[in-house]
Amino acid sequence: MPPSLPDDLLEEIFLRLPPVEPACLVHASLISKLWLGRLSSPRFSGRYREFHGPAPILGFVPTTKLGSPVPGDHRVDWDYATCDCRHGRLLLGSLFEQPNRLDVWDPMTGCRRELHAPEEYLNYGYGAAVLCTMSGCDHRACHAGPFRVVFVGLVINDDGERVAHACVSLPESGDCSKPCFDSHFDEWSEPSFGLHLPGQTFIEPMPPILVEGAPHFRLAYDDDDHGVGILRIWECMVA
């Protein structure tokens, strides 16, 4: 039997397998337990990302109703909507179930964590975002780390104005590196001071945009006098 190649030389070869053909890495990992351990190590993953840059897009996530159930969720009649998709996680919301349910799902590991949105802010639409809370993170492989969910909803006051309130889930830092189907976390911060908006305002049912660490939600109006607005959640709310 010919001598095996040194580990360092094997790693250099593996580094040069093209990321546009991910099957190459899968096939290599099936050769032996030694190769599988080398390819699945955090050190190799970090070097591979540095060598090739960001990973290619693996697929698309619809921003409307999802047609297939989330693995581990046995309620097949639940209608999903994609609230946000960021840092390797999907934030899913229920369209009709009350109290309104949110799920943070990692498609790579199968880990799913459930929480309920604050019921008092669900009357006129809502927006939600999922954010990594690791300090200084480059967001290349943080999908199994701690995260928070930002929620913003509207209420109507006695003067007929709609008032926006935002709250943030307490940091969730459980182990998300393996499947977990029945994990719940329902603790929210105190809501922010209300922002008064015109009476016909509602939050567009679309994923927010993250700019300088702050999620931005799109607002629309039942009349045409105001056009389109942007609601920004301050960085201090999600720090």
TrEMBL record:
Pfam families: F-box
InterPro entries for the chain: F-box-like_dom_sf, F-box_dom
Leader peptide range in chain numbering: none
Protein name: F-box domain-containing protein
F-box domain boundaries: 4-42
Highest taxon of the lineage: Eukaryota
